[in-house]
Each structure stands twice: as structure tokens, then as C-alpha cells.
Design goal:
Structural class of chain A: alpha+beta
Radius of gyration of chain B: 14 Å
Structural class of chain B: mainly alpha
Largest sheet of chain B: none
Shape of chain B: rod-shaped
Number of strands of chain B: 0
Order of helices and strands of chain A: HHEEHEEHEEEEEE
Largest sheet of chain A: 8 strands, mixed, barrel
Oligomer: heterodimer
Largest interface: A-B, 30 and 22 residues
Strand content of chain A: 25-35%
Radius of gyration of chain A: 21 Å
Shape of chain A: elongated
Distance between the termini of chain A: 82 Å
Chain lengths: ~210, ~35
């Protein structure tokens, strides 16, 4: 029987620990960049949601996404949610009081309760994280990909409201006017920016499609 | 430095790395990345 020297056992354990340390830290460092790599890959090789740098309509995107992954969540007449083809997004709309804002934002796209809702007109405001280590991994990570004219679908209480992006701009985090009521009907989406130092907010304003 | 000492230093670093991951998951998503 071969006797393994005790020192060799420690050495092997040390190598295993070193690999584990590198693995955990690489995961922490790489995770925030993975969505960017994934988006680039999907838009150049895979996704039928964006053809020749132009996103398909909300209706078409819903059909494609439901076919691709029938078990995942899909916004429809029975499930309130946001469908944004350019952002490869089909996510549920989170509702809840402001006092639970931290937990609600961690769940996904949260409709600000003190703002309006699509059926009432005015300014409907939806906020979401840019990135989080917890799932869902930053529901608005790709908000900066939206371009003027891109279509946004919002299923709300059984009805689909379709909007078109009108503006995309960055404001200081203290700028709360983006949540204020408006005379016109609009949808405001916002998230933190830039990714690593979120001292500002990226604000996208969309108007009803028939009005644009 | 003996292999045994290195083992405990590496074990400490691994635990520190796992704690960092846990901390980021639990607390830092809104602080660091929004």
C-alpha cells in the first residue's frame, strides 16, 4: 500500500481552496457584466425579437416568447405585466404600497402607487432595479437600449396599453418631478444609472401609440 | 510557512469571499448598483 505523505494532502486541499476562492470571486466580478454579453449575443445571433436592429411589435414578441418558453411568466389579459421587445423583456407588474418599496423593487417592475395607472390616464410610473445579485436580475438592466419610437406594451387589468418611446434622458437622483402627475397620458419608466455608481436616474417616457 | 498554516489562511479567504457574495446578495444591490 502506498503511503501518501501528510504534507501532500494539505497541498491538495490548498489547491482546492485556492480554486474555490478564485471561482467565487470571479462569479462576483463577472455577474454584473453577464447581461451585457448575453444581450449582445442574443441580438446578433439568436433572438427573433430584434431583426436588423429593429424590435418586433409587442403582439409578435408575446407570441414568440410564449412559444419559446411556455412555462415562464408571460404578461397577458390575465397577468398584468410589461412587454418590451427591444429589452427582451416580458415581466410581471409588481403592485404594492410605498412602505414596502425596497422589497417590491427587488421583486421586479414596481408600479409607483401614488402615481397614476394606465386606465386613469396621466403619468403611470414604473421603477425597477438596474442590476441586483438577487433575482430577477435587474429587470431594467437594458433600459438604456430603448430608442425613440420603440414599442412598449403594458397589460393592466385585462387590457393591453401600447406606448411608443418619446424620450430617454438622465436626471439627478434628487429629481422627483418624473413621478409627478401630468395632464397628458404617458408611461414613465426609470432605473438607476450609471451601473457602478447610481447617482443618477435613467428616465424613459413613452406616450400612447395612437397619440404619437 | 507550513502547508497547514496556508490551509487555514486560504480557508479564511474562502469564507470571506462567500461572505462577500452573501452580503452583495442581501444588502448591496441598491447601494452599489441600483
Amino acid at each position: 500500500m502506498k503511503i501518501v505523505p501528510k504534507d501532500n494532502a494539505w497541498r491538495r486541499a490548498n489547491w482546492a481552496l485556492l480554486i474555490a476562492i478564485i471561482g467565487v470571486n470571479m462569479y462576483v466580478i463577472a455577474l454584473p457584466f453577464l447581461p451585457t454579453v448575453s444581450y449582445r449575443w442574443q441580438t446578433t445571433h439568436k433572438t427573433p425579437l430584434i431583426q436588423n436592429n429593429k424590435p418586433v411589435s409587442v403582439a409578435k414578441a408575446s407570441v414568440i416568447l410564449a412559444k419559446e418558453n411556455p412555462r415562464a411568466f408571460h404578461a397577458d389579459a390575465e397577468h398584468d405585466g410589461l412587454v418590451i421587445p427591444r429589452m427582451l423583456l416580458d415581466t410581471r407588474l409588481i403592485e404594492g404600497p410605498e412602505k414596502n418599496s425596497f422589497a417590491l423593487l427587488n421583486m421586479g417592475a414596481w408600479r409607483i402607487p401614488f402615481a397614476s395607472s394606465p386606465d386613469k390616464g396621466g403619468n403611470t410610473v414604473i421603477a425597477g432595479h438596474r442590476f441586483s445579485y438577487t433575482g430577477p436580475r435587474g429587470v431594467f438592466y437594458y433600459l438604456d437600449k430603448l430608442r425613440v419610437g420603440d414599442e412598449i406594451g403594458l397589460w393592466y387589468q385585462g387590457k393591453l396599453y401600447t406606448y411608443q418611446v418619446a424620450t430617454s434622458r438622465t436626471v439627478p437622483a434628487t429629481e422627483v418631478s418624473v413621478q409627478q402627475p401630468t395632464d397628458d397620458t404617458r408611461l414613465t419608466l426609470y432605473t438607476c444609472t450609471p451601473l457602478w455608481n447610481p447617482k443618477e436616474r435613467l428616465v424613459v417616457v413613452a406616450v400612447p401609440k395612437e397619440a404619437s | 510557512m507550513s502547508e497547514k498554516t496556508k490551509f487555514f489562511i486560504l480557508l479564511f479567504l474562502l469564507l470571506l469571499s462567500i461572505w462577500l457574495l452573501w452580503y452583495l446578495q442581501k444588502n448591496a444591490q441598491s447601494i452599489l448598483l441600483g
